[in-house]
Structure to design on (1158 residues):
């Protein structure tokens, strides 16, 4: 909504500076998004109103003329090229040094006078473009005839136009009157309502037209008036100017009045050419199946049965509350006008305009809910203007069909409630003053109780807290103290998965992984690269109806695709190691319910193991780097890591393992299949691990498995064993680490894996560093020998291992 | 046995000269074995030969030999010390390293700036006793809109451009990507039969809108909700004031502007004073010259919503707010374009 300060000032005195006014409106009424000043650059001494008193030919140029203008301080002669220059015009006249826009280049400049084709010019008669008013440079700007000669132009034409963003429940703020009322309440100045007086000199309106509301549930009120013998023509300059300032194009006096009154009161108005209304009757009813209407914008629209239409005796002539029909439009030949000012059910108007994708100034107002009483107000205001500027005779009486009349609610407001909601008391006199200024009726039946009746233009006010808001915003939220919440705290809901998620984030970061966040929506072709077709949960993701872009259509069922895209994109400008992770959710479809949002940690790494500026031979990240990261991570959260060789879609066989705790897989660690990597434009080995948080959390110990540190020294010993070449090292370590003998624990690591000469065929030698530790004593050689013998016996029995050289 | 005369001074001079020539640990050790070696070092042998000396010279010989031993031991220690010093000296000079040469870097991971900002915001509210909850991103239309008093035919729906999920359950239940975290007001209250409620709900939201420097279609919000007997709008002001000071600096001020959200009454927009231009205004790109920066929308929970949750709205009141995490991150770090966050470019991410 635009708001002209000049128009506002017609309805309420404003003596605040513009920025202060804007701030007060933003604080209490609606958001001022900005404003622009018209005439801010016009020096009052250098640009003034003048009158053209003579026009003579230029002695040396056919296209130029010599104008004599009365400036109020004497007559001056100027050279002028404008074709529309004529004697008697009031014009904008600039003298040497005035700040202008160059009519040709469009740039700001200062007027410098010089002789034009040999004739001195004392100044310049200005076009709209030169004044920065519009792009019009065809001719000079012609001012209203009543403009006072010698008056600074900024006083004649200057204005400030605010850009306001108002609220979805406040149709009244889409009118200058509604805004003026708010400003009056804010500043304590009286509101001057516009003139609504006129004389009824025509025939009784009932003889001219009949109105029928067929569907009173959608049409709450319908008022109509008729103006005969209207003289169609341009509206006066002041009205055109205001329409333009508010972003509307002047058409003719009749249409301009309807737009002007809408801008003023917020009430949309429709003017019919009375002579084109068939049967001289108007019916507001739901559309019939198959009905069509060509709206004023020239588009033929198919109507649906729940749309409200305005019809004459033969069919639709308007789409109620949205747009009139072309078949009854006011034109140059119109002589009699039928003025429709009605009130429609907001939801119906909105639904229809959304369905037809037709949103108009009228529908934007109706859908927000206009008080039905506004219709009559706007009728009287329009008829006043008709009488003033369009001539004609106003038929006597108004037709007013008002099935939706409702008594305003009486809202009981107590000081107790005000304090309960706001945390501060508002003095009774302030409260009553504010309510009165906003148009609320307020009775005080007893101390601390107010019976409040909101004005008809505020259908949004229904409950005591609505009234509290109106009082508080005008009273000023800056008068609200800042206090802290009191009372007891609610219990803490356990959030084990979310807690684990945050720990894993920190751990991944401490391992050198950069967190990324990918879009939740992706492309199905990208998903297909990482999700096998037989994974029913993941290969049929949910999609959205109206994606922002085609590549954001499908709710991802795997993080891997977007992680690989992020990896590839970063590889283009990074030579060093890349370690990326994301913790996000997979959206797994669930029959007849919201999808399962399954939290997953997905980490991807690859490239050289460290940043090496100019240092060559840095080894690449490999499977065991990724696995090592996992080991540290599992150690940190206190879950023993177990992996099992596995094969999975898009992962390289022989380089892929399930991560298992207990019996359940909780994730996967693997080298990505090079073909898949290549599909994402990655031409180096990349490694991935993924953890499924909901599965992992089940094995999370409540607290670390604490044991006191042994005060006794451990015993270290290296052994080598011979095993079958295909025996998994993990099984050897698992066995040793689980071996217990009389309270002695064993730690083990493999430090060499030798195959080849000197060994029996089909065997490999594993060199193992053992560490024996007892919590209650220093181990003797005999202890260690006994435990080792037991261990070797198990190794031989369970894994077929023999001590090498033993 | 003859008893050759021994000139201790000559011996000492010889030993010291040879020690001075020993330039490293090995040569010094060799010298020590030659002169002071326990087996047959020359001074050791001399000391051992004291009893072979004639009676009358024995005392003097012994004293001379002992003095020689002490002198050599002292010289040895001195020589070792000076060598150690020379080595340290060399480390600091000839063996000095070029400390400006790049080091061996450990990999450094970082949290995404949105995660960091989210955690900082949550921490601020946790200190004020707020619990944390979460809710689904794919949401029923009924929670996202109807439960929040945003009926289908109301123009308030224009405030949230919605991405709809291509699914219709039972011919009427519509799924969408939640446009705000506000549906969690209803979800949290539903599982809290009796107040108090004091919770913040972080999470991703989605909007069907064109992106530009200040608009992204995927965004992160934190919803706040406090409901109890005695929750006042002044408490909302105090809570958000503390939040603003914690995130944007201790000397921050906040103001409320009137605003409208269907699920709160009164409804406000909250702005902090501009910490870039500090109110100087004109020309400031952060506050656009107003001196104030809008940071979130808030208000008192609409009584109808409390009643729908089974709370007695004459007794229980509440406040709610919705905070854009990306907006906070943009402001605190002076980032010029919101679209940076989800492009995942390490050149951007590694700066936070």
């Amino acid at each position: 909504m635009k708001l002209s300060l000049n128009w506002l000032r017609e309805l309420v005195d404003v003596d605040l500076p513009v920025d202060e006014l804007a701030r007060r409106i933003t604080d209490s009424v609606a958001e001022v998004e900005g404003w622009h000043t018209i005439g801010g650059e016009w020096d009052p001494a250098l640009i003034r109103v003048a009158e053209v008193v003579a026009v003579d030919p230029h002695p040396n140029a056919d296209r130029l003329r010599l104008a004599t203008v009365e400036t109020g301080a004497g007559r001056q002669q100027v050279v002028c090229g404008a074709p529309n220059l004529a004697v008697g015009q009031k014009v904008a006249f600039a003298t040497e040094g005035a700040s202008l826009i160059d009519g040709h280049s469009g740039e700001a400049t200062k007027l410098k006078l010089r002789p034009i084709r040999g004739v001195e010019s004392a100044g310049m008669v200005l076009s709209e473009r030169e004044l920065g008013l519009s792009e019009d440079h065809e001719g000079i700007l012609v001012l209203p005839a009543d403009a006072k000669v010698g008056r600074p132009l900024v006083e004649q034409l200057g204005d400030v136009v605010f850009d306001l963003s108002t609220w979805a429940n406040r149709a009244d703020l889409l009118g200058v009157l509604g805004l003026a009322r708010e400003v009056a309440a804010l500043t304590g100045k009286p509101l001057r309502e516009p003139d609504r007086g006129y004389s009824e000199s025509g025939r009784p309106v009932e003889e001219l037209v009949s109105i029928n509301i067929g569907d009173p549930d959608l049409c709450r009120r319908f008022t109509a008036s008729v103006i005969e013998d209207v003289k169609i023509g341009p509206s006066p300059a002041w009205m055109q100017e205001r329409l333009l300032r508010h972003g509307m194009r002047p058409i003719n006096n009749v249409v301009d009045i309807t737009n002007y009154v809408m801008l003023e009161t917020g009430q949309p108005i429709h003017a019919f050419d009375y002579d084109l209304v068939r049967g001289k009757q108007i019916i507001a009813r739901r559309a019939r199946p198959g009905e069509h209407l060509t709206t004023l914008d020239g588009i033929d629209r198919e109507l649906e049965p729940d749309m409200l239409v305005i019809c004459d005796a033969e069919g639709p002539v308007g789409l109620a509350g949205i747009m009139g029909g072309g078949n009854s439009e006011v034109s140059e030949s119109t002589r009699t006008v039928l003025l429709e000012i009605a009130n429609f059910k907001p939801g119906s108007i909105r639904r229809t305009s959304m369905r037809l994708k037709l949103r108009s100034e009228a529908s934007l107002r109706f859908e927000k809910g206009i008080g039905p009483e506004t219709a009559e107000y706007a009728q009287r205001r329009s008829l006043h203007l008709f009488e003033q500027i369009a001539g004609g005779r106003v038929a006597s009486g108004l037709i007013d069909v008002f099935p939706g009349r409702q008594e305003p609610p009486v809202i009981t407001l107590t000081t107790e409630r005000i304090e309960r909601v706001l945390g501060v008391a508002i003095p009774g006199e302030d409260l009553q003053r504010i309510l009165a200024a906003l148009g609320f009726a307020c009775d005080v039946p007893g101390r601390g109780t107010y019976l409040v009746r909101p004005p008809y233009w505020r259908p949004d006010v229904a409950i005591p807290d609505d009234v509290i808001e109106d009082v508080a915003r005008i009273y000023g939220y800056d008068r609200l103290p800042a206090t802290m919440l009191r009372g007891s705290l609610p219990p803490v809901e356990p959030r084990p998965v979310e807690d684990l998620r945050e720990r894993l984030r920190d751990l991944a970061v401490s391992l050198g992984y950069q967190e990324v966040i990918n879009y939740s929506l992706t492309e199905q072709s990208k998903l297909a690269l990482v999700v096998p077709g037989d994974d029913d949960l993941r290969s049929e993701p949910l999609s959205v109806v109206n994606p922002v872009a085609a590549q954001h259509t499908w709710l991802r069922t795997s993080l891997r695709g977007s992680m690989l895209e992020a990896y590839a994109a970063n590889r283009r400008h990074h030579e060093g190691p890349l370690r990326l992770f994301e913790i996000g959710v997979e959206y797994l479809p669930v029959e007849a319910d919201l999808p399962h949002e399954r939290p997953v940690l997905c980490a991807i790494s690859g490239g050289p193991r460290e940043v090496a500026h100019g240092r060559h031979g840095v080894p690449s990240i490999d499977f065991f780097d990724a696995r090592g990261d996992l080991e540290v991570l599992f150690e940190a959260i206190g879950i023993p890591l177990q992996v099992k060789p596995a094969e999975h879609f898009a992962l390289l066989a022989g380089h892929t393992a399930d991560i298992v705790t207990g019996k359940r897989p909780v994730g996967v660690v693997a080298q990505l299949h090079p073909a898949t990597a290549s599909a994402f434009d990655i031409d180096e080995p990349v490694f991935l691990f993924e953890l499924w948080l909901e599965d992992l959390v089940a094995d999370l110990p409540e607290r670390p498995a604490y044991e006191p540190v042994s005060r006794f020294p451990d015993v270290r010993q290296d052994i080598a064993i011979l095993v079958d070449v295909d025996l998994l090292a993990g099984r050897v370590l698992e066995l040793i680490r689980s071996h217990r003998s009389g309270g002695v624990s064993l730690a083990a690591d493999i430090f060499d894996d030798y195959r080849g000469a000197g060994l029996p065929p089909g065997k490999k030698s594993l060199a193992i560093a053992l560490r024996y530790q007892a919590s209650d004593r220093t181990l003797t050689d005999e202890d260690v020998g006994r435990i080792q013998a037991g261990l070797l016996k198990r190794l031989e029995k369970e894994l077929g291992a023999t001590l090498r050289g033993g | 046995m003859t008893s050759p005369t021994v000139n201790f001074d000559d011996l000492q001079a010889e030993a010291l000269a040879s020690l001075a020539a020993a330039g490293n640990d090995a040569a010094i050790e060799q010298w020590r074995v030659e002169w002071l070696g326990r087996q047959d070092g020359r001074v050791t042998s001399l000391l051992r030969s004291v009893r072979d000396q004639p009676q009358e010279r024995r005392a003097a010989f012994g004293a001379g030999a002992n003095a020689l031993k002490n002198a050599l031991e002292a010289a040895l220690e001195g020589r070792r010390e000076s060598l150690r010093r020379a080595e340290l000296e060399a480390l600091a000079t000839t063996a000095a390293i070029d400390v400006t040469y790049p080091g061996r870097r450990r990999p450094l991971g970082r949290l995404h700036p949105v995660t960091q900002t989210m955690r900082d915001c949550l921490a601020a509210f946790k200190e004020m006793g707020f619990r944390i909850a979460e809710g689904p991103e794919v949401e029923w239309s009924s929670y996202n809109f109807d439960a929040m008093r945003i009926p289908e035919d109301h123009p308030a729906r224009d405030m949230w451009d919605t991405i709809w999920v291509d699914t219709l359950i039972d011919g009427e239940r519509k799924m969408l990507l939640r446009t705000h975290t506000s549906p969690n007001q209803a979800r949290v209250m539903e599982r809290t039969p009796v107040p108090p409620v004091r919770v913040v709900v972080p999470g991703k939201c989605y909007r069907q809108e064109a992106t530009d420097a200040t608009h992204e279609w995927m965004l992160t919000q934190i919803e706040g909700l406090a409901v109890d007997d005695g929750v006042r709008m002044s408490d909302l002001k105090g809570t958000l004031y503390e939040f603003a000071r914690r995130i944007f600096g201790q000397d921050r001020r906040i103001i409320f502007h009137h605003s409208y959200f269907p699920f709160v009454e009164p409804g406000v927009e909250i702005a902090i004073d501009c910490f870039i231009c500090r109110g100087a205004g004109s020309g400031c790109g952060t506050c656009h010259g107003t001196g104030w920066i809008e940071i979130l929308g808030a208000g008192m929970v609409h009584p109808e919503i409390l009643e729908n949750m089974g709370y007695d709205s004459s007794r229980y009141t509440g406040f709610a707010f919705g905070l854009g995490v990306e907006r906070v991150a943009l402001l605190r770090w002076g980032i010029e374009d919101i679209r940076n966050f989800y492009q995942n470019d390490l050149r951007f991410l590694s700066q936070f």
In short: Chain B touches chain A through 95 residues (CB under 8 Å). Residues 8-92 of chain B form one domain.
